[in-house]
Design goal:
By secondary structure, the protein is of the alpha/beta class. The protein has one domain (32-59, 80-229): Rossmann fold, CATH 3.40.50. It is built from 6 helices and 10 strands. It has helices at residues 48-55, 83-90, 106-116, 121-134, 150-162, 180-197; strands spanning 6-15, 22-32, 37-41, 63-68, 71-75, 91-94, 168-172, 200-204, 216-221, 224-229. The strands form 2 sheets. The protein has a 6-stranded mixed beta sheet. It has a 4-stranded antiparallel beta sheet with strand order 2-1-4-5, with helices on one face. The longest helix has 18 residues, at 180-197. It is globular, with a radius of gyration of 18 Å. Bound molecules: adenosine-5'-triphosphate. Adenosine-5'-triphosphate is lined by residues 15-16, 22, 24, 42, 44-50. Keywords: ATP-binding, Nucleotide-binding, Transport. InterPro entries: AAA+_ATPase (IPR003593), ABC_transporter-like_ATP-bd (IPR003439), ABC_transporter-like_CS (IPR017871), ABC_transpr_LolD-like (IPR015854), MacB-like_ATP-bd (IPR017911), P-loop_NTPase (IPR027417).
């Protein structure tokens, strides 16, 4: 058992109340160690988005415990005062679409988040460029988002997810629009970044192309998580 990374114990989420109540999460147990990338899979309506929203402190669970690093962030109620800072500094998000701001160059797109956290512009841009080096898009640092290919835009979006050095990254269908080769490249990058920055990464996916790459998978069915061993095919 690791103290770091993310640990979820007995998390439940009920939407609404009375006759119309929906128990979207009935029993969620998960742990993801620093440096690990796990898959979260499950049929439509099984609770994947609800779980990501709880983990990302976007909605409040109904019960259970969530531990981030050494801190209990939720225990039948939020245990951190500033949820905005928690989302900004300790959780990185990567979505299916890159959602880059079209009128900022790609470096500013990534530097914006540390700047919101109070980092001076030059330092924030420097940090963005360091990530671009690791992600092999440094040569595009001054380009506008519309001048980048889809795969390059997704790498910039990954840099944005990593830039505040969060201990956890939540990736929601990050490879859905990509072909096989690019999808596997994104997974390889996420694995490299997880190890380099000791990040715990959760990838929600339906993408058959990448499911065999995970060493560990959480399968969620009707709001209950089941841990499974994955094939870990590419990264054995
Ligand atoms: N805001 C809400 N109010 C009431 N019920 C909700 C709400 N959001 C989701 N649900 C219900 O909770 C259950 C889980 O939904 P959720 O969106 O988490 O599933 P999912 O696994 O992400 O599905 P998909 O793969 O289709 O996106 C579903 O029955 C859904 O109808």
């Amino acid at each position: 058992m690791t103290a770091k990374g993310i640990r979820i114990e007995g998390v439940k989420k009920r939407y609404g109340s009375g006759d119309t109540a929906v128990d979207a999460l009935k029993m969620v147990n998960m742990h993801v160690a620093p440096g690990e990338v796990v898959g979260l899979i499950g049929p439509s309506g099984s609770g994947k988005s609800t779980l990501l929203k709880c983990l990302g402190a976007v909605i409040e669970p109904t019960a259970g415990k969530m531990i981030l690093g050494d801190d209990i962030i939720y225990d039948d109620g939020w245990k951190v005062k500033d949820l905005r800072a928690l989302r900004r500094d300790r959780i990185g998000f990567v979505f299916q679409a890159p959602y880059l701001i079209p009128f900022l160059d790609v470096t500013d797109n990534v530097a914006l988040l540390p700047m919101l956290a109070g980092m001076p512009n030059t330092e924030a841009r420097k940090r963005a460029i360091e990530l671009f080096k690791a992600l092999d898009v440094e040569h595009r640092a001054k380009a506008m988002p519309s001048q980048l290919s889809g795969g390059e835009q997704q790498r910039v979006a990954i840099a944005r997810g990593l830039v505040n050095r969060p201990p956890v990254i939540l990736a929601d269908e990050p490879t859905a629009p990509l072909d096989s080769e690019r999808a596997l490249a994104v997974i390889r990058i996420l694995n490299d970044m997880a190890q380099k920055f000791e990040t715990a990464i959760i990838v929600v996916t339906h993408d058959e192309k990448i499911i065999p790459t995970f060493k560990r998978i959480y399968n969620i069915r009707e709001g209950v998580t089941y841990e499974e061993e994955g094939e870990g095919r590419v990264f054995k």
